[in-house]
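Practice record 12: protein with flavin mononucleotide.
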Amino acid sequence: MKVLMINGSPHAKGNTYVALREVAGELEKNGIDSEIISIGAKAVQGCIACGKCAELGRCVFNDTLYDKVRTALQTADAIVIGSPVYYAGPNGSLCALLDRLFYSASDLMQYKPAAAVAVCRRSGGSATLDRLNKYFTITNMPVVSSQYWNIVHGRTPGEASQDAEGLQTMRTLGRNMAWMLKNMEDGRHPAPTPEPRVMTNFIR
Ligand SMILES: Cc1cc2nc3c(=O)[nH]c(=O)nc-3n(C[C@H](O)[C@H](O)[C@H](O)COP(=O)(O)O)c2cc1C
């Protein structure tokens, strides 16, 4: 089994990556592969509402990023979308890609478990999750949850590795996703054992 992760940050190895890697580590422990595709720092084409995808079965634009994600979706069993928080929402470049992807390739995502992850310095994480979860819940995708909302805190690239509670939330998300995927296969796996709870308060 394989989980496709999209890193919606222009920083290939920034905080969003740190968060996604934590999910990936837990999936790997449960025997599930993952692949992280970064959207990168180049301009991303948005949807121009031409409707051509209804004819073509794919977006009319064949940029490398869209093609790469679309191809990876064909063999993915689940999806995790991570984004840095920009003005209390997901990165606009990520939404440009997701609008085209969900409009033109929803058949490759239907009924696959999905989760969103938001990474921020301070605030706007839950509004970002809300926006990203909307893609899943209009596409018949079961949304995988964790012990807390899927938000990790950090500002400069790498700082997120200090958010112990956020990272625990990511590991729990990975375990819950593995549990759901395995149960979708044979329906025989008991609920995962939770870790002892970590609390990372901002002001000590
Ligand atoms: C344009 C821009 C807008 C941002 N807006 C917010 C915000 O609304 N709330 C917040 O807490 N952090 C905000 N940030 C900080 C980033 O979310 C934070 O630095 C995050 O860790 C970046 O993740 P990355 O390393 O994966 O790129 C903003 C950063 C940028 C560049």
